[in-house]
Write a structure and sequence with these properties.
Elements (H helix, E strand, L loop, with lengths): L1 H17 L5 E2 H11 L8 H13 L3 E6 L7 E6 L1 H25 L7
Antiparallel strand pairs: 1-3, 2-3
Length: about 110
């Protein structure tokens, strides 16, 4: 239960962070999250799409359809200027929150 809530609470941050450097389609976003977390965080691809739609409705990301020969049509997402600002704020909030949880739970910070 806690793991599911943590995933849900971090999905927006993870998506925005992955779109910081380049545009990606939904399947790629899901695969990148799983690979970069060494398999610790994995989203069923269908659960990512509602988050992508919500971020797009908020104006934090923009999507565009791309068709390539021999491939199915894919929607590629990119970060908007508003999304970049939100990413900066969310990173700061997450860092402060994780530090506070670690202090309360007695988890040593790396390098301590």
């Amino acid at each position: 239960m806690l793991e599911r809530e943590l995933k849900r609470g971090s999905a927006e941050l993870l998506i925005l962070a992955l779109l910081e450097d380049r545009e990606r389609h939904g399947y790629d976003i899901g695969k990148q999250i799983e690979q970069r977390s060494d398999g610790t965080i994995a989203f069923h691809i269908t659960s990512l799409y509602p988050t992508l739609y919500r971020l797009e409705a908020k104006g934090l990301i923009e999507g565009r359809w791309v068709e390539k020969a021999g491939q199915r049509r894919r929607r590629y997402y990119r970060l908007t200027p508003g999304g970049r600002g939100t990413l900066v704020r969310q990173r700061s909030i997450w860092e402060n929150f994780a530090r506070a949880v670690n202090r309360v739970a007695g988890i040593a910070a790396p390098g301590s």
